[in-house]
Write a structure and sequence with these properties.
The chain has 109 residues and is mainly alpha-helical. Helix content is 70%, strand content 0%. The longest helix is centred in the C-terminal third of the chain and has 24 residues. Bound molecules: zinc ion.
Length: 109
């Protein structure tokens, strides 16, 4: 990738997403550069795929928040020494809640 390719990248991206032409300062470069054309094609494909997903809702895994928080480094990180006890506590609390719900379920007979 040349410096021109890197400078053109945001304009290539805009063109790929909105379907318009690459802005004039980079239009001739984009027309002759195979790398920029490949980048444009890849971004246009991604934009089409994202547009096709509009309205689709995909449920996040139940443990997503926990996995994200435990993978963080820095101020927001869960201290490593807490990870295992917190996970065990969460498992015990959820088992207790399940047992309580089971015991308190309405019975018809
Ligand atoms: Zn280029």
């Amino acid at each position: 990738m040349s410096i021109v390719c890197e400078l053109a990248a945001p304009f290539i991206a805009n063109s790929a997403v909105d379907g318009g032409e690459v802005l004039r300062p980079f239009r001739s470069h984009a027309a002759s550069c195979l790398k920029c054309q490949a980048r444009h094609a890849a971004m246009a494909k991604t934009a089409r795929e994202l547009a096709a997903m509009e309205g689709h809702r995909i449920a996040a895994p139940a443990d997503l928040e926990w996995r994200v928080m435990t993978s963080l480094e820095g101020d927001l990180a869960v201290p490593r020494s807490w990870r295992r006890p917190v996970a065990w506590s969460a498992a015990v609390v959820s088992m207790a809640a399940a047992i309580l719900i089971w015991r308190l379920r309405p019975r018809t007979s």
